From TrEMBL, chain A:
Listed InterPro entries: LexA/Signal_pep-like_sf, Mito_IMP1_subunit, Pept_S26A_signal_pept_1, Pept_S26A_signal_pept_1_Lys-AS, Peptidase_S26
Domain of life: Eukaryota
Keyword terms of this UniProt record: Hydrolase, Membrane, Mitochondrion, Mitochondrion inner membrane, Protease
Organism whose genome encodes this protein: Hydnum rufescens UP504
Organism lineage: Eukaryota, Fungi, Dikarya, Basidiomycota, Agaricomycotina
UniProt KW Disulfide bond keyword: no
Cellular-component GO terms for this entry: mitochondrial inner membrane peptidase complex
The protein's name in its UniProt record: Mitochondrial inner membrane protease subunit
SUPFAM superfamilies xrefs: LexA/Signal peptidase
Active site, renumbered: S47, K108
The EC number(s) this enzyme carries: 3.4.21.-
TrEMBL record, chain B:
Organism: Hydnum rufescens UP504
Protein name as catalogued: Mitochondrial inner membrane protease subunit 2
Family: Belongs to the peptidase S26 family. IMP2 subfamily.
Keyword Signal in annotation: yes
Keyword tRNA processing: no
Domain of life from the UniProt record: Eukaryota
Signal peptide extent: 1-25
Listed GO MF terms: serine-type endopeptidase activity
GO annotations of cellular component type: mitochondrial inner membrane peptidase complex
Gene Ontology BP annotations: protein processing involved in protein targeting to mitochondrion; signal peptide processing
Length: 201, 181
């Protein structure tokens, strides 16, 4: 077999492998898009009731805008960033890696950004916080969210594992912002609204 | 054409399997970037093991996102959840219990390192990758050696046998400094 024959065989082999290469690449590119740009994932659990149902709701997560704009938020350090920030506002739904279980992604409502003072009300805290002592014995505590951290809480204060339990979450665990909630049957797509009301002073 | 075809494959490899990275700074000296070397070390960052949920061990060298400024830092795990650690000066308490899902990380060089003695226990979720091998310089090619202070560090860690993992609420009470009025 001379060299030319070998090259011809190689080319025909590559041509017949083409559909396989194309489909593998399609899967890989789809995966890269869901990892870096945006994804749709199912949610479960009662912690975000009534915003998210106990099961059956899917969330569309935007995983790219925080990569483009997050450094601006971080640079604020201890100064409270303005809430009109296009990328991240208090009250938006976010998903982040659980600080106590590295295999889980959690979806909660963003309450505080660096520099915000948070009031932890023991009477609205989950039952697990109160089971040792009577709720009345626990004082209301205040804390300031440190630089490069955020504060999250579930909408269902009676059954949620969130910053009230594990404290402020480092921005390194931030995964993305939830832009829409999808229910598959009957098909319904809701845009996420800001669930917070501000008290004027 | 052929080179572009394998780009998605390389990107996924980089994202989920591992990659090479240069180490800057002296915090892991003399294990990485020793004083005698005038070049940056290149290490292999293994992303597969952390992402598949493999457990970390005390003594592993890991790359994690700093809870202080989100930069990638390279440190060694001293203690895992449930352990009691004797801390070094900047930390306010003499002993600290590591809460659920967290670890105590320190650099091998005690003075040039901004580590858990500064920012406390870190969440294992912040860990990006494990560092099993040094790739360059070739004279030190191979597995990352144990810390020169491994023995002293082992004495600083008490494995809390029979004591349940610290409740997250207690750990948080430590982390939340009450606001002075």
């Amino acid at each position: 077999m001379d060299r030319l024959d070998f090259r011809r065989m190689l080319w025909s082999g590559l041509r017949s492998a083409r559909p396989a290469v194309v489909s593998i690449n399609a899967v890989l590119i789809w995966h890269l898009v869901t990892e870096h740009i945006g994804s749709i994932k199912p949610t479960e659990g009662p912690s975000m009731l009534p915003t998210l149902a106990n099961g059956g709701d899917w969330v569309i997560t935007d995983r790219i805008s925080h990569r483009l704009t997050l450094p601006k938020i971080l640079r604020h350090g201890d100064q409270p960033p303005s809430n009109s920030h296009p990328s991240l506002t208090r009250g938006s739904l976010i998903s982040y890696k659980s600080p106590i279980d590295r295999t889980r992604l959690v979806c909660k409502r963003l309450i505080g950004l660096p520099g915000d003072m948070i009031c932890i009300n023991p009477h609205s805290a989950p039952a697990s916080l109160n089971d040792q002592k009577s709720g009345a014995a626990r004082p209301v505590r205040h804390t300031v969210v440190p630089a490069n951290h955020f504060w999250v809480q579930g909408d269902n204060l009676a059954a949620t594992l969130d910053s009230q339990t594990y404290g402020p979450v480092p921005f390194g665990l931030f995964d993305g912002q939830v832009r829409a909630i999808v229910r598959l049957w009957p098909l319904e797509i809701r845009r996420v609204s800001n669930g917070l009301d501000y008290i004027d002073n | 054409m052929g080179a572009v075809t394998c780009l998605p494959f390389l990107a996924v490899l980089n994202l989920h399997v591992g990659t090479l990275m240069t180490v800057k700074g002296r915090s892991m000296s003399p294990t990485l970037n020793p004083e005698s070397s005038n070049m940056f070390d290149v290490v292999y960052m293994d992303r597969w093991d952390p992402q598949t949920g493999k457990k970390f061990a005390r003594g592993d060298v890991v790359v994690l996102k700093s809870p202080v400024d989100n930069e990638l830092i390279i440190k060694r795990i001293l203690a895992l959840e449930g352990d009691l650690v004797q801390t070094l000066p900047p930390y306010p308490d003499a002993w600290v219990a590591i809460p659920q899902g967290h670890a105590w990380v320190e650099g091998d060089e005690p003075f040039h390192s901004r580590d858990s003695n500064k920012f406390g226990p870190v969440s294992l979720s912040l860990i990006d990758s494990k560092v099993p091998w040094i790739v360059f310089p070739f004279s030190r090619f191979g597995t990352v050696p144990p810390s020169p202070r491994a023995r002293a560090n082992r004495d600083r860690v008490r494995r809390a046998k029979g004591i349940e993992v610290v409740r997250m609420e207690q750990a948080m009470a430590r982390r939340l400094k009450p606001e002075s009025t």
